[in-house]
Amino acid sequence: MRILFILGIFAILLISGCNTNKNKENLKSENSIIVTDGFKHIVPLENVINVLPRDAIPSIDKPKFVSVQEAEKFLDDNEVVFGVEFNKDARAYPQQILNWHEIVNDKIGNVPVAVTFCPLCGSGIVFKRVVNGQETTFGVSGKLYNSDLVMYDRLTNTLWSQLDGTAIIGELAEQKLEILPLTITSWQDWKKSFPNSKVLSRDTGFVRDYDTYPYGTYESSAEILFPISTRDSTYHPKTRIYGIEVNNKFKAYLKGDIAREKIINDNFNGKNLLIVYDESIDDARIFYRDDKEFILKNGKLVSGDIEYDLNDNSSNNKLQELQVVKAFWFAWYAFHSDTEIYKT
Predict the structure, then answer these.
(1) Residue 296, Cβ neighbours under 10 Å: how many?
(2) What is the DSSP letter of 127?
(3) Among 175, 185, 74, which residue's Cα sits nearest to residue 124?
(4) CA distance linking residue 162 with residue 313, whole number of Å
């Protein structure tokens, strides 16, 4: 199966070896739905490419979970996991499994979620899997847009861009999915913070070599395998960023910059923002901060004489968290070429 998958990738590479700067577009610049041969769409149909048959990469729709102790048998400390916690229900989804499935349809703390990962864009995003007010599940369409996973919902068969959760082709074109908080961290850090976490089991119902990364040296190389609408060489294409949208404007923060500064009081498009790095999980969160200025004092987040616990949802001092896209730089820029970039 792995050989067939890799052959499929290289077949597309041979077909797609063209100038990827043409047909430059920005998804957000589309102001109206286009109808072509009865298909509603907001991006040029020719820019959505077919790579594999629908569900050739199978989503996990009935996930099984094991304890942290059981997961130790197949997870090394430095392996990446995607962590989600709602209503005291903490779950970890190993990247080694998501590399082969890309979508896990689950329910966490009674919240219906789709935990998604596009290996090509490095984009891990959790969506509330509700469309038109109805709960649904998502699958892998086998198509790519700007080298990014295109999902489909099983309620309307609408095609959705994973990187920003926008419906690009189909009945629900232009609608957006709700993005939910996600932690991307190492297994070592996650299990320390959430020792009672559930962990996605390798018993997925599919035969895959989860010990093998199917994309070779892709994560560290400058290579981009599939066409994208526009490129930028300011940073290495696989530089990891945190992308946000505030009032239809976009901004990217390099993960390395956040990790060095630990805390950033920023202002973007008329909104005061707080970016906080959590060393214990090697990840960051972004909040609205009103007019407050924050500092780190003895490891505590402080504004004036008030301490803030960002993990205490019952606190009167709770801050509003932004939806954040965590992805490779090239992918964020391909979707949002007008993005601002935080400079240290």
Answers:
(1) 12
(2) E
(3) 185
(4) 28
